[in-house]
Amino acid sequence: xxxxxxxxxxxxxxxxxxxxxxxxxxxxxxxxxxxxxxxxxxxxxxxxxxxxxxxxxxxxxxxxxxxxxxxxxxxxxxxxxxxxxxxxxxxxxxxxxxxxxxxxxxxxxxxxxxxxxxxxxxxxxxxxxxxxxxxxxxxxxxxxxxxxxxxxxxxxxxxxxxxxxxxxxxxxxxxxxxxxxxxxxxxxxxxxxxxxxxxxxxxxxxxxxxxxxx
Length: 214
Hints:
Strands 1, 2, 3, 5 and 6 form a 5-stranded antiparallel sheet that branches. By secondary structure, this protein is of the alpha/beta class.
């Protein structure tokens, strides 16, 4: 479950970004919509604990993020949250296997190799296990990023503009894949996007307004 109340955030002296109150139940899929500068990425980073120093309340899996120390927040994020960023942030010199298994390592979890192999097969990456990321196509690298995001059984997946640079065919493939993975694990999926094509895929939507001066 995700819940925010009276949430706002300010970058230095810039305008304060004020967010609407909302609750997203466990297992629900939701779009964050809004024009550039409305705070979609900022909100994802607040919900994932990547940004601190906010005003208001941010609860994720019934945990108020502001009450966690940096160490506790790192552990919480590693065990409960999967992130798919605009840029994949994969390590090109590492193989597909090492990139994905880095996620449980950093979260202090033992790697589940059976689950790892199952995910690779479901994403069509089994034959790429030992390939360096630098040798993959853009679409294959995207699927590696998805695998890395779901390997730790996260209760929540945050995806930031996962389809903005894709044609219609690959857009459908990527969002269908995310929905399939999320549904199979009863995972809450939150997608920040300005891609209007996704409105037909995910009906629950939160629309953000432009930043407000306070």
